[in-house]
Amino acid sequence: MITIWQLPSYLRKLVISLLFIFTYSKAIPMPNQGIIQNSGLTAAMGFGTLNRIGCKNLLTCNVQGNYFYNSIISSGPSIKFFGGNLDSENNLVNQRYSANLNLTHTQEKYAVFVGPVLSFDNTNLSTLRNEFSHIGEGNEFPNNTNSTDCKEIFEKIGSSIGYHSGAGFLLTPNFGFTFGHSFDWMLTGTYTVSLSTSIAYNLRWHFEKLIENTKNSWLSLEYLISPNQSKNNINSFILGIVLGF
């Protein structure tokens, strides 16, 4: 069996060009290493840092997937890992799971979305039942910033119900930018708000392998801030990639 890569150079370029014409699915970059496409599956991964004033930097990794039932409705899971050394005695490794449903409105040069999000810190059913049976009985996040408090801020988040929304814009077929917003109400009675913005670059047009195997491929750099009343905001920078199939 002859593959595309065994063809002469001029034939290979011709076949790849035809594949590009018939399989290209226009996408618009979205917040949180996301894209909007008409149908199919997307997979994304991001790496970066997480910082709060007075606390040491933590490393973070985001992995997520979304399935687009059509150009309006999509849903999928995600998992976020973060951790690092707070000082010589305290270190932190934590993960957070989420599931979301998105409703999207798409135009030629932009798209907007909104949808609910359910998040939790573990998969232990007993722990989750205990959280739901003691709704509103938690404490506020600490305002000072010694190492123990930093650990509590990042570790004791708990389950939450909320929503996220955002918009993505195409400046050119290769460049775009996004704005995002999310709100999470914790079962402990507290809440968090996050704002984000990112720039994104379309990789697919520049790599033959991506043209052959994906519908869309975008690289993004995102800045996220979670403001709070103590003014010790949580800041994050994420470098991510998303592939559409």
How big a fraction of the residues is strand? over 45%
Give the ordered list of helices and strands.
HEEEEEEEHHEEEHEE
Number of DSSP-assigned strands:
12
Main sheet characteristics: 10 strands, antiparallel, barrel
Q: What is the 3D shape?
A: globular
What are the low-pLDDT stretches, counting only 5+ consecutive residues below 50? 16-24, 141-148
Query: What Rg, in angstroms, do the CA atoms define?
Result: 20 Å
Mean pLDDT: 80
Strand pairing plus helix content: what structural class?
A: alpha+beta
Report how far the terminal alpha carbons are from each other: 24 Å
The number of helical segments is 4
Roughly how much helix do the residues carry, as a percent range?
A: 10-25%
How would you describe this structure to a colleague?
A hairpin with a 5-residue loop joins strand 5 (73-85) and strand 6. By secondary structure, this protein is α+β, with helices and mostly antiparallel strands. The chain has 4 helices and 12 strands, in the order H-E-E-E-E-E-E-E-H-H-E-E-E-H-E-E. The model is unreliable at 16-24 and 141-148 (pLDDT under 50). Strands 3-4-5-6-7-8-9-10-11-12 form a 10-stranded antiparallel barrel. Strands 1-2 form a two-stranded antiparallel sheet. It has a domain at 17-37 and 103-220 and 228-233. The two termini are 24 Å apart. It is globular and about 60 Å long. The relative contact order is 0.20. It has helices at 9-23, 125-133, 147-155, 208-213, and strands at 28-30, 34-36, 40-52, 58-68, 73-85, 91-106, 110-120, 160-170, 175-186, 191-202, 216-226, 234-244.
